Amino acid sequence: MASVSSFVWTYYTIGGLVVCLLAVIFNTAVLAILLHKRELLHNPFYIYILNLLATNLVVLIINGPLALLVGGYQVWWFSMDFCDVYLYFSYVLGSVSLLCHLLITTNRIWAVMFPISYKRLHTRKVAALICLSMWIAIHVLMLPGVIINKFNALPLEEYGCIINVISCDKLIAWNAVSEMILTLLNLLIVTAYPFILVKHHRRQRIRPGASQMPAISVPRWSTLWQRFRPAATGDEASHSREDGSLSLGQRATGKQPRLSHRKRQNASAFWVLTLSTGSVFFLLTPCLVYTCFISLGGAYDVNIFNIVTMVYTAQAAVDPLLFVLALTELRSFRKKQP
Question: Which CATH number fits domain 9-205+278-331: 1.10.340.30, 1.20.1070.10, 3.90.550.10, 3.40.50.12780?
Answer without folding.
Answer: 1.20.1070.10
